[in-house]
Amino acid sequence: MNLDLGDRERAFRDEARGWLERHVPESPLPHMDTAEGFEAHRRWEAALAADRWSVVSWPAAYLGRDASLLEWVLFEEEYYRAGGPARVAQNGISLLAPILFEYGTPGQRYRYLRPMADGTEIWAQAWSEPEAGSDLAALRSTAVRDEARGGWILNGQKTWSSRAAFAHRGFGLFRSDPAAGRHKGLTYFLFPLGADGITVRPIPKLDGHPGFAEIFFEDVFVPDTDVLGAPGDGWRVAMSTAGNERGLSLRSPGRYRTAADRLSALWRERGSGAADLGDRVANAWIAAQAYRLYTFGAVTRISEGGGIGAEGSVNKIFWSELDVRLHETALDLLGAEAELRGTGAVADGAWMDGYLFALSGPIYAGTNEIQRDIVAERVLGLPRGNR
Amino acid sequence: MRFSLNDEQRGFAQSLDDLLGDADVPAASRRWADGDGAAGLKLWKRLADLGVSALCVPEAHGGLGAGPVDMVVAFEALGRHLVPGPHVESAVLAPALLAASGGGPGLDALADGTTMVTVAAPPLTPFALDADVAHEVLLLDGTTLFTAAAGEARTSVDRSRRLFDVHRGEEVGRLEPAAAERALDGAVLACSAQLLGAGERALATTVEYAGSRRQFGRAIGEYQAVKHALADIRVALDFARPLVYGAAVSLGAGSPDAGRDVSAAKAAVSDAAYLASRTALQTHGAIGYTEEYDLGLWINKIRALTTAWGTPRHHRARVLTAITAVSP
């Protein structure tokens, strides 16, 4: 058992560190969920891609570097340490791309992966519906076969679609066989958000920015070439996305490690008048360190052929709650200044922005209540029964 | 980088589990608490045969010279199975102190388990565990090691922890401050591993109970309130475990961060194991609150170990000092 990096990994990390030091913008970009910020973040994605840093773990043919899982973790640590901008392409890169690699046709991979990697096309996810949140399989949006045109007609409504206010394309599940069971007869579709019959209504989030949206579908035609996986197999295909989202790929340990280090620095500056917060600062650091080491354990397991499975739910509960606690501690340290945002606030309001972002963690990708059910039933083996 | 146990370590854990699983350790622990050490000493001998007492003794003295990771593997099993006796003191702390101070009882006899040593190390550990059974009592006062004599007996909530005041005897030797700190960190880590094992056992016992105990016509483990409480223990233990093993790697590599990492592990695993014990009791209800039912042995063990070898608050303060120190 060791935590030592090999020569190749150290060289990779140092190269990433050097590049980020030279390229990360000195002052923060405008928020990515504004029209101006969205474009600025796309340009950043293009800059990353130009030197092959946007999707390090992808194959070289798709602008990646064939980086190992460990190297990806190291890149992420460096990225957060350097204060890199939020990744506007994140939904596509971490949720859709793994599915394209696993289930996509060569044509789909050719058409979609490179524009995703360099920020040309930003993807929005379209999972939830007004009556299908945690209970995703209750979704009612429909796909009806159009044999004449060789495709499907989509109708219905999606909501809480991250990035959809400004994004170019979306991906989501539609009910293609209403006679089949809840988890059957669902099909995974890719569609342009500018298609005829699609209306996008942005929804400002708690932070005031339109970070997600409702999407209305009225007789939207999607050709067969934009069905991902087999028709009717959408649930299985989508669940591998959910596994990714809950597990390793969405939340790298770098985020918490950097935030915990900044919290330690904040305590050094302001802790003298708040000695009672010391325990919480220490706990935040300990939790971030635990998450980092846990990730190294998972990386080892995966590289030796193991999987993540339902343990992704254990992971998701931990990082989402750690994130909230860490930011709450920072806000308590800031005292009366904690509520301030933007210019004039400590660190331009980064702690409050981080807090507002963290609040979504226990909700999205399956609420933490759903995750606890999964842990209890699939990890601990408690009876499923009638909850 | 490889952050998982190797096949040998898994095998070692398995052989300890096999031995202890068949040994009716709770009964031995109860008799140990009553002052009847026969079963506990037999267990001590069998564990020594598996190499537990030799793990941390240098090879030159007949030990295995194993690293802290192997030690953690062993102590997780001792905690899971409720093994009584001064294992932390005799197998981890004493070898480190004696090797670093160059004196005292022979390391060779520690390695083969024929000598049992206990150690008091105030202020964190003011009492000597099982000083009436141990062949030698040591006292670490700052960086000076003394022989000691057992004084008045104290009563722990975990009755199998037979605690004694100590009276200072002859000076054995002096340690470099860093060596003393490293020796104590080893003991703190061993205690952390015991807590990890004990917490895992409390969870496993409770999952089993929740799946079979029925109320209102169904297993109580079907209720979401119970499910979520048990899921929270799984989360807490799953994220305490890498801290414990990470601290072992750190200690083994002689990292300058080892003290910080050991304290992070003790703080987190104390909280996790304590959560496990409280939820285990609550889920079992009245049966868990009885002395007769074995679960109570783990509950009281976890309560005692939570504040032994430094309270969670002490260890968090040590982490805080380390992480807020201005880097050189």
Automatic annotation (TrEMBL), chain A:
Q: Where is the Acyl-CoA oxidase/dehydrogenase middle domain?
A: 124-220
Any signal peptide, and if so, which residues? Answer: none
The Acyl-CoA dehydrogenase/oxidase N-terminal domain extends over 7-119
The cross-references to Pfam families, in alphabetical order and at most eight, read: Acyl-CoA_dh_1, Acyl-CoA_dh_M, Acyl-CoA_dh_N
Annotated keywords: FAD, Flavoprotein, Oxidoreductase
Which InterPro entries has this protein been placed in?
A: Acyl-CoA_Oxase/DH_mid-dom, Acyl-CoA_Oxase/DH_mid-dom_sf, AcylCo_DH-like_C, AcylCo_DH/oxidase_C, AcylCoA_DH/ox_N, AcylCoA_DH/ox_N_sf, AcylCoA_DH/oxidase_NM_dom_sf, Mycobact_Acyl-CoA_DH
Any idea where the Acyl-CoA dehydrogenase/oxidase C-terminal domain is? 232-380
Q: Give the protein's cofactors.
A: FAD
SUPFAM superfamilies noted in UniProt: Acyl-CoA dehydrogenase C-terminal domain-like, Acyl-CoA dehydrogenase NM domain-like
Any keyword Oxidoreductase?
yes
Q: Which PANTHER family match?
A: ACYL-COA DEHYDROGENASE, ACYL-COA DEHYDROGENASE FADE29
Family the UniProt entry places it in: Belongs to the acyl-CoA dehydrogenase family.
Q: State the name under which the record lists this protein.
A: Acyl-CoA dehydrogenase family protein
- To which species is this protein native? Actinomadura vinacea
UniProtKB/TrEMBL annotation, chain B:
For the keyword Cell cycle, the answer is no
Q: Transmembrane helix among the record's keywords?
A: no
| Leader peptide range in chain numbering | none
Q: Which cofactor does this sequence's record say it needs? A: FAD
Domain Acyl-CoA dehydrogenase/oxidase N-terminal: start-end pairs: 7-97
Q: Which UniProt keywords apply?
A: FAD, Flavoprotein, Oxidoreductase
The family database entries (Pfam families) matched by this protein are listed as: Acyl-CoA_dh_1 (PF00441), Acyl-CoA_dh_N (PF02771)
- Segments forming domain Acyl-CoA dehydrogenase/oxidase C-terminal: 180-320
- InterPro entries annotated for this entry? AcylCo_DH-like_C (IPR036250), AcylCo_DH/oxidase_C (IPR009075), AcylCoA_DH/ox_N (IPR013786), AcylCoA_DH/ox_N_sf (IPR037069), AcylCoA_DH/oxidase_NM_dom_sf (IPR009100)
What family does the Swiss-Prot or TrEMBL record give for this protein? Belongs to the acyl-CoA dehydrogenase family.
- In Swiss-Prot or TrEMBL terms, this protein is called Acyl-CoA dehydrogenase
